[in-house]
Design goal:
heterodimer; A: about 325 residues; mainly alpha; elongated; B: about 375 residues; 3 strands; globular; EC 2.5.1.58 (chain A)
């Protein structure tokens, strides 16, 4: 309920369909209101009722025409989530054999206004399927990213297009460039993973280059949850544990004298690594060290999650008593 | 837990806020027309969380209105405008259907006027070969994990699985697993970014399908641990849904409910800083109109979605709300009773079939006759 739909209210010259010369042959259909106690009744404006009464009439007539297309646009303006109107619009486009150029422009205009609307994004996807063409979608999603870098729909659309039409070329670089601009953009991290997963796969070579990429990014921002999550995801693609990397982070943490809130993710990574080592090798010493770090997390590094870290530490202690 | 202990200010002003929504919305909310049932669910659910639903007069009329939006072929429409279209365009929606059933439960209805066999075959028809669900028939709506799988799982859980085979269930579960993100949360579709709300949808659906913390559990202990980590990391003061996104009151429900489902044995307050979550939500109370805002900013007003999910989230934190049902605990007993009744009535009908076994010969000849009749009827149709 956060966006409003009053983007048509400034149209002074707007003429109701009932007053339009070219609509005189149509009798609007107004479903009788039988319920005195409707729930969430909406005080529909006159133009809203007018549009939907004529929409109902057009559907009853099964009319597929230019004026019907225009009517759907007016209905969509007033409720862009009405999926039946969108469905009817698509049928009109098909039956009239319309060129899709104008429709692409229309959806782009609509998307920029309502970037979180499911139906418009879906419509756009259908257009790409019809045209069997996803070539303009990357540029379009980039327009949306200018408004909202983490827009979930735009990312989903981009991934769909890339996968559907095999447009992986340049995508890894695109994600990396976004991360160079903003290393905290979790959507871009996810996209990087998506592209590798579906194109090259996690070969030995790719894993190595991705690990050095993420290490570089950790140099820039050590306490970035996204980078740590990405590192863990890469490591999940390897069956054997990477002790070299784990040990490296253990020493890195060791040499930091004044640890604080900005070392919480490093400490959590090290605690996880040591706890895992303790479990796999029944290494009591590793367990003790992990418990120590978890305690430090709960007291100094990440007190907002103190209960959680305490819980992990008590589980681990109990296991190695 | 008494609602006063949530500390969200004047409870009466929140009650007034939800009652106003139930009553009439100004014309600028016309764009919500196709989701009126969902808004009704938020308002009635909000009143239920506030312990104020029994103050409602006209419950019977509300129930009538909701049933008036049922399709004879199964499912519910979000509003009359969506329903009163020619049959080739009128398509009930899975989210509206979920909302309708929630509203009916909240209003004390026994769900005995739901067309169950039609509902179940309609849900089945929405299932795609990959195990995902469409929101409405014929791809007029996109397919994703959003609420669609969750809504379907909830409805199947309550109304039975008679035409939903074990193989169907496994396919649905497989799809959910395919939506797992690299950070071990869940996204909207395979490959999408991990997200608190979708992690809730995934875990709750797995629970309804019997695949969470059970012999058939599909998530390993290590994965569940990672999910818990993802959820606890979602607290900065209040709760958000994705790394480095701002806190937002609706995630008080989504993320906390996911956390509770991932590790039900441990209280939420044993993992999160409960006081800080509470003070964030309290800071988002709309002092002017009641209800709860998305975040604490000057240009924000309370809205139904955030008011509902913030209260539901507090309910989860105070252990008053059963996360997978999005309902107060005292209502889930009734849901289980209804579920058992539906089960028994199905058993009754199959028992009565068995008792007719004596008339087997007659049945068989009737069956042959009807197959023949169908054949006769179909022949001219197909050749036409």
């Amino acid at each position: 309920m956060s966006s409003s739909s009053d983007d048509y209210s400034d149209e002074d010259s707007y003429i109701l369909f009932k007053d339009r010369e070219d609509w005189r042959d149509v009798i609007p259909v107004n479903p009788e209101d039988n319920f005195e106690h409707e729930v969430v009744r909406i005080a529909y404006s006159e133009d809203f009722k007018d549009c939907f009464d004529y929409f109902r009439a057009i559907c009853d007539k099964d009319e597929y025409s230019e004026r019907a297309l225009e009517l759907t646009e007016e209905c969509i303006k007033r409720n862009h989530a009405n999926y039946s109107v969108w469905e009817y619009r698509r049928r009109i486009l098909k039956k009239l054999g319309k060129k899709l150029e104008a429709e692409y422009d229309y959806t782009q205009k609509m998307l920029r206004r309502h970037i979180k609307n499911f139906q418009i994004w879906h419509h756009r996807q259908v257009l790409c399927e019809w045209a069997n063409d996803g070539s303009r979608e990357k540029a379009m999603t980039e327009l949306i990213f200018k408004q909202d870098q983490k827009n979930y729909h735009a990312w989903q659309h981009r991934q769909w297009v890339v996968k559907r039409f095999g447009l992986y070329d340049g995508e890894i670089d695109f994600a990396r460039e976004l991360l160079i601009k903003d290393v905290y953009n979790n959507s871009a991290w996810n996209h990087l993973h998506f592209c590798i997963q579906n194109s090259t796969g996690w070969t030995e070579e790719i894993r190595k280059s991705e690990i050095s990429f993420v290490l570089e990014k950790l140099e820039v921002a050590i306490d970035n949850e996204c980078s740590w999550n990405y590192l863990r995801a890469i490591q999940n693609h390897i069956l054997t544990a990477n002790t070299e990397l784990g040990d490296k982070f253990v020493s890195k943490l060791d040499v930091i004298e004044e640890r604080g809130n900005s070392h919480k993710h490093l400490a959590a990574y090290v605690a996880d690594y040591l706890a895992e080592k303790a479990e796999n090798d029944s290494d009591k010493e590793a367990a003790e060290k992990a418990v120590k770090i978890l305690t430090e997390l709960s007291t100094d590094l990440d007190p907002i999650r103190r209960n959680y870290w305490n819980y992990l530490s008590s589980c681990l202690s109990a296991q190695f008593q | 837990m008494k609602i006063e202990e949530y500390g969200i200010g004047n409870v009466r002003s929140h009650v007034r806020y939800f009652r106003n929504i139930l009553n009439v919305l100004p014309s600028r909310y016309s764009y919500l027309d196709s989701q009126r049932l969902v808004i009704a669910q938020f308002a009635l659910g909000g009143l239920s969380f506030l312990g104020a639903i029994d103050q409602l007069q006209n419950k019977e009329e509300f129930i009538e209105w909701i049933y008036s939006l049922q399709s004879p072929h199964g499912g519910f429409f979000g509003s009359k405008i969506m329903k009163e279209l020619p049959s080739h365009l009128a398509k009930p929606h899975i989210a509206s259907t979920f909302a309708a059933v929630q509203c009916l439960i909240l209003l004390g209805d026994e769900l005995d006027r739901i067309h169950i066999p039609e509902l179940l075959s309609w849900i089945k028809s929405l299932m795609n070969p990959d195990g995902s669900f469409q929101g409405a028939a014929d791809a007029s709506e996109p397919t994703d994990l959003r609420e669609f799988t969750y809504c379907a799982a909830f409805l199947i859980h309550i109304f039975g699985t008679s035409n939903f085979s074990d193989e169907d269930r496994k396919r649905a579960v497989q799809y959910i697993i395919s939506c797992q993100s690299p950070d071990t949360a869940f996204g909207q579709v395979p490959g999408a970014e991990g997200h608190g709300a979708l992690t809730f949808c995934a875990l709750a659906s797995l629970k309804f399908f019997g695949c969470l913390h059970s012999d058939e559990g599909v998530l390993s202990a290590a994965e569940l641990k990672r999910i818990v980590r993802f959820c606890v990391n979602r607290q900065s003061e209040g709760i958000h849904g994705r790394p480095h996104k701002p806190d937002d009151t609706c995630y008080t429900f989504w993320t906390c409910a996911a956390l509770k489902l991932a590790q039900p044995s441990i209280d939420i307050s044993e993992k999160l800083d409960k006081e800080r979550v509470l003070s964030f939500v309290r800071s988002c109370v709309d002092e002017n109109i009641g209800g709860i805002k998305k975040l604490n900013a000057k240009n924000q007003y309370a809205d139904a979605t955030h008011s509902y999910f913030a209260l539901a989230g507090l309910g989860v934190i105070f252990d008053d709300v059963m996360p997978e049902y999005m309902l107060k605990k005292d209502l889930t007993k009734r849901v289980l009773r209804i579920r058992n009744r539906v089960k028994e009535s199905k058993l009754d009908s199959s028992n009565s079939l068995l008792s007719r076994a004596g008339n087997l010969a007659l049945s068989v000849s009737f069956a042959i006759l009807s197959v023949y009749a169908t054949y006769l009827l179909r022949e001219p149709l197909t050749s036409a």
